[in-house]
TrEMBL record:
Gene Ontology BP terms: negative regulation of TOR signaling; neurotrophin TRK receptor signaling pathway
A Gene Ontology cellular-component term: cytoplasm
Domain of life assignment: Eukaryota
PANTHER family given in the database record: AKT1 SUBSTRATE 1 PROTEIN, PROLINE-RICH AKT1 SUBSTRATE 1
Protein's recorded name: Uncharacterized protein
Stored InterPro entries: AKT1S1
Length: 191
């Protein structure tokens, strides 16, 4: 199995084959046009279990182009893949990552977030302006902000629980060691 990912690890695909063996010129059903969403060659892959994993769905934009639905990662700005109805095959951008060493480096990047499980953008990355409160986009944005806040809260609760368990385990180990020391001292005293 080969893991294919966008440049920030938000979108991950599982494939049977290494994508560099599947480069081809995209042909539409009607002729030989290049894809409008990938200006060069694209890669064709077939997904296998676990299929497509998206860490933060609100950071993926889906746009229909002809018969294809293009999935773009808003976090790293990459048009990652395109799907066609009733097909397990995907067209993927040549700029995706599939080298295990590169993916490992991304997991150890200073901006990698354990909370969101992706590489966060640099602080000085410009973001779009917040939509007007009267627009429907504002409500959608507010819902996404609430999801992020809930995710952060859940992560902190989980980490706190794990920390308390580690402390409890350590305390139990130390008590056992102290009891063993007491027994040794008593035995030594009797000698």
């Amino acid at each position: 199995m080969v893991v294919i990912t966008c440049n920030c690890l938000n979108v991950k695909l599982s494939s049977k084959q290494n994508p560099n063996t599947a480069v081809f010129e995209f042909l539409t059903d009607s002729g030989s046009e290049n894809t409008p969403f990938y200006p060069n060659k694209v890669l064709l892959v077939e997904v296998i279990d676990p299929g497509i994993t998206i860490e933060q769905d609100y950071l993926v934009h889906r746009q229909p182009i002809g018969e294809w639905l293009v999935h773009s990662c808003l976090n790293c700005g990459l048009d990652v893949y395109a799907t066609k109805p009733r097909s397990s095959r995907l067209l993927i951008n040549q700029k995706v990552q599939y080298d295990p060493a590169v993916i490992d480096r991304l997991h150890h990047h200073p901006n990698y977030s354990d909370v969101f499980e992706l590489v966060l953008p640099e602080k000085d990355t410009p973001f779009q302006t917040i939509p007007d409160r009267s627009s429907g986009q504002f409500e959608s944005l507010q819902g996404e902000i609430n999801m992020v806040q809930e995710q952060l809260t859940n992560y902190l609760i989980q980490e706190e629980t794990e920390m308390e368990n580690r402390i409890k385990h350590y305390e139990e180990e130390q008590r056992i060691l102290f009891q063993q020391l007491q027994e040794k001292v008593r035995k030594d005293k009797k000698k």
